[in-house]
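Lab channel / #folding
Pinned by the channel admin:
"Please post every new chain as: sequence first, then the structure tokens as a reply. Keep commentary short and put observations after the output so the thread stays searchable."

First post following the new format, from NK:
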Amino acid sequence: METKVCGRCKNSCPTQEFGSYYHKVTKKYRPGYLCRACRARKTADYRKKNPAYRQKLRVQQIARKYGLSEVEYQKMSESQNHCCLACGKKPDYPLYVDHCHQSGRVRGLLCSGCNSALGMVEDSPNVLRNLAGYLER
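Reply from TO:
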């Protein structure tokens, strides 16, 4: 088994314990210089020192997945009074972007519970109607 010394803790670990990166000059993947545990600590330290990091990632993810800019997301949230469109609750965390899985069209912003509920019933209005009927028995 091939091993490598971690650049931070100086422990000798199997090369599988190191992430890999693409070396532009040799055009090959090479093992990283930190073992898995040190990489996790380094990442956690960075996130602690940079609290805006998580928000930046969220904005990038929303733009990539749904085509919404940060301004568009904020306008949508403000137009809903920062409340879930389904239940009307105002959560203390950012609302989730709900979208049609077939067309990709953004429908609105939902709380975690409502977004999960829609996912569980696979966005089926029939299942939701049946569930409502079941609850009203």
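NK: The first helix runs from residue 36 to 49.
TO: also worth noting, The chain has five helices and six strands.
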